[in-house]
Amino acid sequence: MLPTIADVLDLEAVRRGDPRVVAGADRLDTRVRWVHVGEIADIAGLLRGGELVLTTGVALPEDPEKLADYIAALAAVGVSGLVVELGRRFVRELPRPVVKAAEDNGLPVIVLTRETPFVQITESVHERIIDIQLEELRASEQLHEVFTELSVEGASPAEVLAQVARLAGRPVLLENLAHQVLACESAGKDAGTLLAGWEMRSRAVAPAGRTAYDPASGWLVTTVGARGQDWGRLILVCDAPPSPRDLVLAERAATTLALGRLLERHQESLERQAHGTIITGILTHAYADPDEAAARARAVGVPLTGRKLVSVVIRPTDPTDQALDGQAQLGELAEATAAACRDARLPALVGALDQERVGILLPLPPRAQAEAALTTLAERLRVLWRPGAAFVLAAGSVVDSIRDVRRSFLEAEQVADVAVRQPDGRPFYRLPDLRLRGLLHLLRDDARLQTFAERELGPLLAHDAQRGGDLTRILRIYLDAGRNKAVAAQKAHLSRPAFYDRLRRLERILDTDLDDVESCLSLHVALLALESFRRENHRV
Predict the structure, then answer these.
(1) Which of 248, 295, 410, 522 would suit a FRET pair with 323, their CA atoms being 20 to 30 Å apart?
(2) In whole angstroms, what is the distance from residue 482 CA to residue 493 CA?
(3) CB atoms within 10 A of CB 347
(4) How would DSSP label each residue in 322-334?
(5) CA 262 to chain centre
(6) Which residues contact 529 (CB under 8 A, 6 or more apart)?
(7) In angstroms, rounded to a whole number, what is the distance separating the alpha carbons of residues 179 and 200?
(8) Is the pLDDT reported for residue 536 higher than 80?
(9) What is residue 22's three-state secondary structure?
């Protein structure tokens, strides 16, 4: 950032001249681009603006009107200020017409009451300017390296904003054209306060240009987009007018975000990423206060407070599609789910939970029926997603607080994981629909159930662990096939003799008869319980 006139007055070479401000004392924050020494009266025609003019006044006219014209011409060309050394042309003070003209034209004028070599002043100021320019060049190079690395690594918007906040030490947000926050890095500020009433506040800020500072809001706003298609704005929340480095930082970040969008292939939209980040933050307790999660959700147009919250998990059931491109399919499913929510007029957070599941946090008015909303959502999704593609929609318990959403999501995931194995075409699934599996899920923390499973399967699990075997998998295949050995052998991709041999080994290890219905029932219940334990531990 260029030095101001006040900065120049603090330089030792200038202080030796005992400077005194005689006009424009309220404009000492004017930036100085260069220092120019000139004694001729018509020097204005040789200047470009931003210069600090030094003169002894020896060649200035005697006529007061022409002196006033001289001052007006300097102001018109945009010089930063005028420094006059007393003692040669003007002995003790400047003529009143000069001071009046300077005040009228808003031109800072400083007199030096002691003789001072102008060359020392110009050298000092120019050294300061060059040092600043070199520092800005180094900063620009650093920013170039940082954001080039982010671009090459395919950084997410959240990662880009984290770097911006770290480098600027200020909050930064990314919003779409509907003024919904896609990503936010609060830089230690209270996120709830930062996001409060965001859409209304953001719509009121419309500075001209692709990058501009809005003094009223204190926002540095940069348009994000490429190839003539703008899709968002990057906003750096400043406490004071931004520095040139802040401008470069915002523009480089916007370029990185735009490039990342162009390079995306088979990935979620930024809206889905933003929604998914909020859902994940709730599930992992990333937010110190539930109010922060509510504020972030509200900023993307999804109110959570004062609503009944329904956690929903959707899983595609077609293994062929998953094998082709699971990530692409899941991205399409998430977008179709968001569209189905919009069609059904159900504001919701929609994003991928992992490589297999799409999660929805559905806030409903207090009197709304969750069953009706879930049925409508399922019907709209079957129309909007791939024709003929199958999925299961599983819902957790309805909760009233964001603090309970994690428990509801875990329940919905359990339901989805079970239902996807044997879907029966119903619009949605809930825990009671799982019958025995649902009961085992509810009892998964009961020590008696854990003891039962260990008693039934302990020797087999120990055998597989010690020898790296797969007999537990063989037992599950056999039981899932209804104890039909021929079908089970086929599913296990083994010949019948090889499969029968494994069954005999199972009987020896478990000391049981696999032709006995009650024994097989106990083993099947133990396997289902074990599956519930493992899934729960995996998510903790």
Answers:
(1) 410
(2) 17
(3) 16
(4) HHHHHHHHHHHHH
(5) 17
(6) 440, 443, 444, 449, 450, 452, 453
(7) 8
(8) no
(9) strand
pLDDT digits (tens, 9 = 90+) for 103-127: 999 999 999 999 989 999 999 999 8
pLDDT per residue as tens digits for the range 376-434: 999 999 888 876 778 999 999 999 999 999 999 988 988 888 788 777 788 999 887 77
Tell me the one-letter amino acid at 79.
V
In sequence order, the 6+-apart residues with CB closer than 8 A to the CB of 235 are: 172, 173, 174, 175, 202, 219, 220, 221, 222
pTM exceeding 0.70: no
Q: State the Cα–Cα distance between residues 186 and 170, nearest whole angstrom.
A: 7
Report the SS3 class of residue 111: strand
Q: Which amino acid is at 102?
A: A
In whole angstroms, what separates CA 120 from the centre of its chain? 50
- The answer to whether 520 and 495 have CB atoms below 8 angstroms apart is no
The answer to whether the CB of 526 falls within 8 A of the CB of 457 is yes
Q: How many percent of the chain have pLDDT more than 70?
A: 93
How many C-beta neighbours within 10 Å does residue 220 have?
26
412 within 8 A of 431, measured Cβ to Cβ: no
Instruction: Map tokens 């930063």 to a residue.
Output: 80
HSE of 316 in the Cβ direction (CA atoms, 13 Å)?
Answer: 28
211-214 and 219-226 beta bridge pairing = antiparallel
Q: Of the candidates 180, 172, 166, which has an alpha carbon nearest to the alpha carbon of residue 296?
A: 180
**Sequence-distant (≥ 6) Cβ neighbours of residue 343 within 8 angstroms:** 380, 384
Q: Which has the closest alpha carbon to 145: 248, 238, 224?
A: 248
Residue 430 has which token pair? 């809930």
Residues 6 or more apart in contact with residue 401 via CB below 8 angstroms: 290, 309
Q: What angle do CA 113, 114, 120 make, to 5 degrees?
A: 120
